[in-house]
Amino acid sequence: MNQEAFFALADRLLERTQDDELLFANLDVEDSDFVRLNQNHVRQAGSVRSAGLGLTLIDGSKQVEGGCELTGSADADLALALSLLERLRERLPHVPDDPYLHFSDTPMQSSRAIAADLPDAAEAIATLTDQAVGLDLVGIWASGLIGDGLASSIGHRYWHQSESFNLDWSCYLDRDKAVKDAYSGFAWDPLQLAQRINRQRERLQIMARPQRRIEPGRYRAFLAPAAMQELMDMLAWGGFGLRDHRTRQTPLLALANGDVALHPRLNMTEANERGLAAGFTAEGFAKAERVPLINSGRFGQCLVDARSAKEYGAEVNAAAEYPEAIEVAAGDLPANDVLARLGTGLYIGNLWYCNWSDRNSCRVTGMTRFGTFWVEDGQIAAPLAVMRFDDSLYRLLGDRLEALTRERDLLLSAETYDGRSSDSALLPGALVSGIDLTL
Amino acid sequence: MKHQTEPLSQLHEIAAGFAATSPATTPAATAGADYWSLRLVDQTSEGLAVRDDVAEPSSLGLSRGGMVTVVVGAGIGYGATNDLSPAGLTAAFKRACRFASLHDRLGLFDARQYPRSALRAEFRSPVAQPWESWTLQDKLAVLAKACAGLDVDERIVERAAWLGHQRSVQLLFTSDGGEIAQHWEYVHCGLSATAHADGQTQTRRGGGADHAQQGGLERISASGLVDDAALVASEAIALVEAPECPTGRRDLVLLPSQMTLQIHESIGHPLELDRILGDERNYAGLSFVTPDMFGTYRYGSSLLNVTFDPDVPGELVSYAADDDGTPARRVHLIRDGILERPLGGALSQHRSRLTGTANARACDWDRPPIDRMANINLEPGEGGLDDLIARVEHGVLLDTNRSWSIDDSRNKFQFGCELGRLIEDGELKGLVRNPSYRGISAEFWRSLDGVGGAETLEVRGVRNCGKGEPNQSVFVGHASPPCLFRDVEVFGGGL
User: Fold this and answer.
1) Which of A47, A170, A181 has the highest number of chain B CBs within 10 A, making it the mutation to test binding with B?
2) Residue B59's pLDDT is what?
3) Is the pLDDT of residue B238 over 90?
4) Which of residues 251-310 of A touch B (CB under 8 A)?
5) DSSP string of B98-138?
6) Residues 6+ apart with CB under 8 A from B259
7) Which of residues 353-412 of A touch B (CB under 8 A)?
C-alpha cells in the first residue's frame, strides 16, 4: 500500500466518525524479500507483504485502540477498517476516562520517501555467493520497502517510507571461530561488498591461529562499534525513558541523581534528524530532531512519549521511550592507532546476549562473540575463546573509558521481529582500561 | 470437521478457493510445482492493563494472513501475504516460485527432501471459561482490584496488573491432501510491584506473570491474579531491605519459576537441530552439542529426564502437528542423563540423518517454520520441596527469573532471579536480593542431585523466545519440579 492509497482509505474512513469522535489511523507497511544463507548457500528464501492498520478512537476523555491487517484492495480494506472501528465504538463507553489521554491537536503534514537503488534479491545473492566462494558464510539478506503513515480526523497527514537492503552475515572457520560484518544501505555496490568479503578473508587468516584461552579477571580492551551497539542497546532498555526515571527503575538512576558521572567526553544524542525512521508519533506529534541524552558525562534529557508527557507534565519528544537513532560523539583516537593504544588486551568485535546483572549498579553481563582477538604489544596475536563479562557501564563508560575513536560506524538495525526495523546507531569504538571477565 | 468456528470455516473457504483456482493447480504450473502448502492464520487478541490505578488504553488486535510454500524441483520458496483473495494468493504463489528457482540454483539442500504432509488432524485448546463470558467491565474491575491490592506501602513506586487474550486459528492445507486445523487459546495475566528505598529498586512479579498456559478465563484464578497481590508487593519491599546475595560456591534449589529458564537456555536451545546444522550461527548461535553425542553423551546426572511432550493439557505449546504437517508425539530427549535425540523437524532430520521431533514452527503467517522448542519438560523425581531443602547444608533457594544470558554455543550461562532465600543446615533462612549464579551447561546438569516429585511439578512457559532470520518470537512450554544442584557459583549485586 502506498501513500496515495493509504490517505484515500483514511479519507473514506475518517468520514465515518460520529459526533465528537476523534480518530487516528496509523499504517505500517512492508514489502520485503528475505534470503537466509548457510554454508554460502540458500537455506530459506521468500517474500512477505503486509500492511497493518492501527486505529485509536477517542471520545471526550476516553480512548480505545485496535489493529487489523489490510489486503491492498480499497473496498475490502475500507470494510475491514470500518468493522474494526465499529468494534472500538462498542467498547468505548465501557472503559474509564483516561487521565493521560494525549494527542496532537495541531494538524501537521509531512512526507518523506527514501528511494534506493536495489538489486533483485536473486541477483544480490548470486553476487554474494560468488564473491564468498570457499567461505562458510551464514546470514540473512533483507530488502524492500517499509513505510509508516498517519492520518487523523484532526487533519494530520504524515508519511514516511524507505527502500533499503540489509545484508548481515558472518563467516566461520570452526565452531565459534568466526568474523561478522554487515553491509546495508540504499545503493547496492558489489565492489563494496567485495572489499568487505576480502577483509573478512584476511581476518579469518588470523582467526585460523590457535585459540587463546584466558583466565577471568580485568583486562584492557577495545570495543568495536558493533560491540558498543550492544551496550547502547542495554542503555536503551530503560535508561532514558521518563517513566523509568520517575518510577526509579532506570539503570541510570544514580547518574540522573548526580551520584555518579560518566566520562566527561561522553556525549550521547537521540538523532532523529538522521531521518531513517519516521519523524512522527502515533498521536500526531513530531519527534524532536535531537535529544541530548548524555552531556559531557552527565545525564541530559529523558525521552518522553505522549502518555508520559501528560502524566508527568513534560513535552513530547519521542514516539517511544527508547532511542531509535542513537549517536555517540566521536573521540580523538584514530582507528589506525587502536591496537597500538590498546597495547596488550582484548579486541572485542562483537558482544552478545547482554542482560542486566544488577540494574541498580548499571551492571551488565554478556558474552564476547565474533571477531574477538587477543592483542599483544599492539599486534593481534590470536583469536580469543568466548568469555563472559560482568561489569558496570558506570565504569566502562566512566572512569575506565580511555578514548573513543575518531571514526564512527553507521549501523542499521538488522532486527526483524516486528517487521524490518528502521532503527540505526552512529557509534565510535571505545578503548577501556579494564573490563571484568568472569567466566 | 467438528468444532468449526467462524474463522476456521472462512479459512477453509479460502484454502478451497486457492486449491481450485490458483496457478498451483493449473496444468502449466502443476508441471513445475511438485508440492505446495498454504498455511492460513487467523488471530484475535486483546490487551488490558491497569497501572497505578489508571486503566491503560485497551487494545484489540485482528490479524489474518497466509503463507504459500512451493517446492519446484530441487528448490523451495515461500510467499506470505495478508491479501487472501485469489489474486493475492496467486501473487504470493508466484513469488514463492521465484524464490524456489533461486533455491534450485543455489540451495543448501535438495528441496525434494522437504517433508510432504497428507496428515488430516485437528487440535483445540482446553477452555473451561470462554473469554467472552466476562464483559469488558468485569475484566477491568478484576484488574483494578488486583492493582489496588499491590498498594501496601508508600515505598511501592509503580504497580501494574494486566490481562490478555489470544486466539489463534491455523489451517495447514497441502497439495497432498493434508488438512490440519488447530485452534489455540491463551489467557495470560500478571502483577508487577516495584519498590524503591535508599537508592535500591526491586521489582517483584506474580499473579501469572511467568506462568502462561493455554486456556480461558479460568487461568485468572489459577494464576492468583487478585489473591497474590499483597504478597507480591510485600516481597518487593522486603527485597529492597534485604542484604545482597552472598558470593561464593553454594548449593542451589531452583524453583520451577527459575527452572523454566534453566531448561530453556541450557537444554532446549542446545538441542535445536538447526543450530547444530549451523543455520543459526549468524544470529541465535550454534550449540556445544554435536551430532555424534546422541545416544552416548552424558548430559546430566542420572536424575535428568527431559521430554518433548506436545500432549500436556493446557501447556503452552501442546498441539497435534507442527507447521510442516508432521504429527507430534511425546518422546524423550534425555533419559537418565544420557542424550537421546535433538529437537529437529522432518527437514532437519533429513539433512542431519538424526531422528528428531515434530517441532518445525512459525511464529505467525509471515514467517516460515524453523526448528523451535515446543513443550520441553523436566520429568519429576520423588519427594517434596522440603525434602530438597533438608538436604542442603549451605545454599540458596532461587525464585523467578529476571535476567538471562548465555553464550552462542549455549554453554557459559549467567542467570539472575528476583528473590533468593538462604538455606542453612537444611532450613530456609532470610531473603537476599539480586541473587545470580553462573556456570557451564555441559557441567551444570551433572551437578543435579535432587528432583522434586510429581506433586511439585509446575507447568509454565515463556512467551518471548526469539530466534531465526528473519526474527521470530514464539511461545514455549516448560514443566518442571524444583531441583537441587550442588556447588554452584552464586553472587549478588553492587558495583
Assistant:
1) A47
2) 97
3) yes
4) 253-254, 257, 259
5) HHHHHHHHHBSS-GGGSPP---EEEEE---SS-GGGS-HHH
6) B378, B478, B480, B481, B482, B483
7) 353-361, 363, 365-367, 369, 386, 388, 390, 392, 394-395
**Cα A387–Cα A389–Cα A395 angle in degrees, nearest 5:** 145
- Pairing between β-strand A345-348 and β-strand A136-152 as defined by DSSP bridges: unpaired
pLDDT digits (tens, 9 = 90+) for B435-480: 999 999 989 999 999 999 999 999 999 999 999 999 999 999 999 9
Predicted pLDDT at B6: 85
Choose the closest CB to B137 out of A94, A178, A390.
Answer: A94
User: Residue B4: its pLDDT value, please?
Assistant: 45
Q: What is the pLDDT of residues B273-307, one digit of tens each?
A: 999 999 999 999 999 999 999 999 999 999 999 99
Residue A91 forms contact with B (CB below 8 Å): yes
**Coil, helix or strand at residue A187:** strand
Which residues does chain A have within 8 Å of residue B402's beta carbon, measured at their own beta carbons?
Answer: 356
Nearest by CB to residue A247, choosing from B194, B283, B472, is B194
Q: Which helix (H) or strand (E) holds B78?
A: strand B75-81
Mean pLDDT of all residues in chain A? 97
| A433 contacts: CB under 8 Å, gap ≥ 6 | A220, A400, A401, A402
CA distances to A31, A111, B295 from B292, rounded to whole Å, are 42, 57, 8
A93 touches chain B (CB under 8 A): no
Q: Which alpha helices (H) appear in B180-228, and where do they start and end?
A: 218-223
Instruction: Give the amino acid at B134.
Output: W
Side-chain-side CA neighbours of A84 within 13 Å: the count stands at: 31
Please list the residues that pair with B399 across neighbouring strands: B419
- Which positions ≥6 away from A267 have C-beta within 8 Å? A292, A294, A295, A296, A328, A329
| Alpha-carbon Rg for chain A in angstroms | 24
Q: Find the mean pLDDT for residues B34-60.
A: 97
User: Are A176 and A386 contacting, i.e. CB atoms less than 8 angstroms apart?
Assistant: yes
Question: For chain B, percent helix, then strand, then coil, each to nearest 5?
Answer: 25, 40, 35
> Which is it for strands B248-254 and B200-206: parallel, antiparallel or unpaired?
unpaired
CB B99 within 8 A of CB B73: no
Q: What is the pLDDT of residue B243?
A: 98
Q: Do A49 and B98 touch (CB under 8 A)?
A: no
Give me the residues paired with residue B90 across strands: none
ipTM: 0.96
Q: 3-class SS at A193?
A: helix
Report CB contact under 8 Å: A67, B470. no
The answer to whether the Cβ–Cβ distance between A38 and B108 falls below 8 Å is yes
Rounded to the nearest 10 degrees, how much is the dihedral formed by the CA atoms of B59, B64, B70, B75? -20
pTM for the model stands at: 0.97
**b vs e for B312-322, b when ≥16 Cβ sit within 10 Å of the residue's Cβ?**
bebbbbbbbbb
Q: How far is CA A170 from CA A165, A181, A228, in A?
A: 17, 6, 18
- The x, y and z cell numbers of residue A257, run together, are 541523581
- In this structure, of A168-172, B21-25, B343-347, B469-473, the range with the lowest mean pLDDT score is B21-25
Write phi, then psi, for B364 (nearest 5 degrees).
Answer: -170, -170
Chain A hits for B137, Cβ within 8 Å: 94
B200 to A362, A393, B89, B174: CA distances (angstroms): 12, 17, 55, 57
Q: Of A268, A256, A216, whose CA–CA distance to A397 is shortest?
A: A268
The dihedral sign for the CA sequence A252, A256, A257, A262: positive
Report CB contact under 8 Å: B88, A71.
Answer: yes
Q: What are phi and psi of A207, to 5 degrees?
A: -60, -25
Backbone angles phi, psi at B344, to 5 degrees: -145, 135
